[in-house]
Amino acid sequence: xxxxxxxxxxAATTLTAEEKELNxxxxxxxxxxxxxxxxxxxxxSYLALIAARELGKNAVCVTGLSPSVSQKQxxxxxxxxxxxxxxxxxxxxDELDSEQSAWLFVSNGVRSVRQRRENSAxxxxxxxxxxxxxxxxxxx
Length: 140
Prior knowledge:
Helix content: 40-55%
Number of domains: 1
Strand content: 5-15%
Order of helices and strands: HEHEHEHH
Strand order of the largest sheet: 1-2-3
CATH class: Alpha Beta
Shape: globular
Radius of gyration: 17 Å
CATH topology: Rossmann fold
CATH superfamily: HUPs
Number of helices: 5
């Protein structure tokens, strides 16, 4: 995993917004490929934009769709991705497919969000590793 350069390890409160963005851009270039968990909201849209501008097609922006994501959220994510030409993919998540997951979703919002994120994260990792496989000696 890419680690920040020593020059990036300055207290965040001492940096201007412009300096923080420059650091973010530098980190993106160091990593060379990134996967952005993209919802279409302000935070992930900003991160996706910086990633796309720095890395082009090596920045993959993924939105996990499920019955718990509103049509408006879906449309917003798709529209922003198209407007800024993100390398954008949608994956279907399945947090409501099993009886246990559906019960958790209905009975406990916090637990369901955690389970949904874990399920989505697993699917996103598989997608990313398919697109950007790790070198054979990565873990040695």
